[in-house]
Design a protein that fits this description.
The chain has 566 residues and is of the alpha/beta class. The protein folds into 2 domains: 69-199 and 383-457, 3-Layer(aba) Sandwich (D-Maltodextrin-Binding Protein, domain 2), CATH 3.40.190.10; 202-379 and 476-565, Periplasmic binding protein-like II (D-Maltodextrin-Binding Protein, domain 2), CATH 3.40.190. The protein has 21 helices and 13 strands. Strands 3-9-4-12 form a 4-stranded mixed beta sheet. Helix 2 crosses helix 16 (397-408), helix 13 crosses helix 20 and helix 20 runs antiparallel to helix 21 (534-565). The longest helix is centred in the C-terminal third of the chain and has 32 residues, at 534-565. The radius of gyration is 26 Å and the shape is globular. It starts with a helix and ends with a helix.
Length: 566
């Protein structure tokens, strides 16, 4: 079977890969019931590490299993990092191997795959019939390609028949991540999705020291935010002295749809349905949603009032001009990735402000943009992350499913994420931890051992507060109150769009880059034009965007939604 499949896959691989990739719908999920991820339930038979050496846990009291152990292979990313350990043979792989043998009588062998060429290498392994039994990739089209050739196991039957044995996986991932890729017609599940535990995306930041100097309270509405911007402009000399002419009350970049997303989403009616979010959701900057035009009109007002960086549209991706102005202390407020002001250590914005201006100079997260329902709606990252699948050469799918469940068990994944106290982390009285560099064979080749915790991306301490505090402890030279506030603010009233499995949307193929350029140009032109010209420029640009392919995508998405969900 393996030889026959290998020959078949090798013969058709090149032709298949040259064909158009399967396009999956944009990842979207319904708003979570709470703003914090849920705490995974404790398994009935935890694999708790011993105090002195977690890899040498006490043997169970029951008699040893008489039957011969099953054997599986598991893919592990090889990052080739200097000073790292062998990714397939180290302290943490030993911990996993001992645990799987003890708890499930399964022997595990790790197969390293280069991280930065993982798709190419995985393609070769699949074509040759040599892929590990448990595979991990960021590329769903790769999985779909081989599934179409009969090279991937349909997980659906095992997910159903083994569900009582997979409670830890189900508690962690839930139906959404497990069934995200279920085909709406056949019911096949070629891969389950790992969970992105930290999915905070974008926040609004303001110079805290400027607000204090001008006796301004943190803005809680767009009107208060605008009043604050005007105060920054009117008091430039007080704030910057001889550099008053360099002051910029509010800054954004050429990527307006991303960088002002929190403001724009506040103009989207709260009555917008999940169907609308899906039909108009091809663009991940939400250009097509109702109300966005009025959000851009507000930016146009600010631009023409001198409240925005005049040159925002002139600098492309990767340019550091804006970052340098923030580091120099010239910019009063931004909307940006949730931790941008605090990352980068000595090269970062926070460190430079503190060094150049003083200990009070810092950006702090605020929440000023309410929608018509009084909600501070923010689009969060999808909870979907890496994809876990089994190639059809896997002769032990049940044992492989037990592996996925074992690695999802809180005790197991938590130990893999933080390691030993005093070696790879220090623990504080509040229960939070701070990661430190490991030593010898206990060094982690990837942050929080993400390459082993294949069903979760992001530190999970079993309690949302402890997790947030632990994340905050990881920013060198930054008072953790800033990071904790930013993390909580970024989740407040956050929404994650629901994914709808409707099969391939043909009209989306190859349209990403072309529509992206038209979108960015439309945003920029509508902001910098005179207010009297705004409607004409927006309407003409948006019509061109629709005529260039967006309308066809909307219509096909609407038809697909109606077919499967109405």
């Amino acid at each position: 079977m393996k030889k026959t499949l290998s020959l078949l896959l090798a013969c058709v691989m090149l032709l298949t890969l040259l064909a158009a990739c399967t396009v999956t719908p944009i990842n979207t999920t319904p708003p979570p019931k709470t703003n914090e991820p849920s705490t995974p339930s404790t398994p009935s038979t935890p694999s708790t590490p011993s105090k002195n050496d977690p890899t040498k846990a006490a043997e169970p009291t029951a008699a040893p299993k008489a039957e011969k152990p099953k054997q599986i292979t598991v893919e592990i990313f090889d990052r080739g990092n200097a000073g790292g350990s062998s990714p397939e043979d180290n302290y943490y792989t030993d911990y996993i191997k001992r645990g799987m043998l003890r708890d499930h009588n399964v022997e595990v062998t790790f197969i390293p795959v280069p991280r930065w060429t993982e798709v190419d290498v995985l393609n070769n392994l699949l074509a040759a019939g040599d892929a590990p039994d448990v595979c991990v990739t960021y590329s769903y089209p790769t999985i779909q390609t081989y599934a179409n050739m009969g090279g991937v196991v349909d997980m659906a039957p095992y997910l159903e028949s083994m569900k009582p044995q997979l409670s830890n996986m189900w508690d962690l991932l839930g139906d959404m991540n497990i069934y995200n890729n279920r085909d709406p017609v056949t019911g096949t599940v070629w891969a389950i999705e790992a969970i992105r535990y930290v999915n905070t995306r974008i926040n609004t930041f303001v110079r805290e020291d400027w607000m204090k100097k001008l006796n301004i309270q943190e803005p809680t509405s767009i009107q208060e935010f605008e009043t604050m911007l005007k105060a920054f402009k009117d008091n430039a000399s007080t704030l910057l002295g001889n550099d008053a002419g360099k002051l910029i009350p509010f800054s954004t970049s050429f990527d307006v749809g991303w960088r002002t997303n929190n403001l724009l989403m506040s103009f989207v009616p709260s009555s917008t349905s999940e169907k609308d979010y899906y039909v108009y959701g091809f663009d991940d900057r939400q250009l097509q949603l109702p109300g966005i035009k009025e959000g851009v009109r507000k930016l146009n007002e600010w631009y023409n009032a001198g409240l925005m960086w005049k040159d925002f549209a002139l600098y492309s991706e990767g340019d550091t001009t804006e970052d340098n102005m923030m580091k120099a202390g010239y910019i009063g407020s931004i909307i940006h990735n949730w931790d941008v002001p605090y990352s980068g250590a000595e090269q970062g914005i926070h460190h430079n402000l503190q060094t150049l201006i003083g200990p009070d100079a810092a950006y702090i997260a605020v929440d000023p943009f309410k929608n018509d329902a009084g909600k501070y709606t923010k689009v969060l990252y999808s909870t979907l992350d890496r994809k876990v699948f089994f190639p059809s050469t896997n002769t032990e799918p049940e044992a492989s499913m037990l592996y996925v469940d074992w690695i999802s068990t809180f005790e197991n994944r938590n130990f893999l994420q933080i390691g030993e106290e005093g070696v790879t982390h220090n623990r504080f009285e509040d229960g939070s931890i701070k990661t430190i560099a490991g030593r010898d064979d206990k060094i982690m080749n990837s942050g929080n051992n993400i390459d082993y915790t294949i069903t979760i991306n992001g530190l999970d301490m079993g309690d949302p507060v402890k997790s947030a505090k632990s994340i905050a402890n990881g920013y060198a030279g930054v008072d953790k109150r800033f990071v904790e506030k930013s993390y909580a603010t970024g989740l407040n009233d956050g929404i994650v769009f629901k994914n709808y499995n409707v099969g391939e949307i043909k009209s989306e193929e190859g349209m990403g880059q072309a529509l992206k350029e038209k979108r960015d140009n439309l945003y920029a032109q509508a902001i910098v034009c005179k207010p009297a010209e705004f409607d004409a420029i927006w309407d003409a640009g948006y019509k061109d965007y629709l005529d260039s392919g967006a309308r066809a995508i909307q219509e096909e998405r609407a038809a697909a939604y109606a077919k499967y969900y109405e």
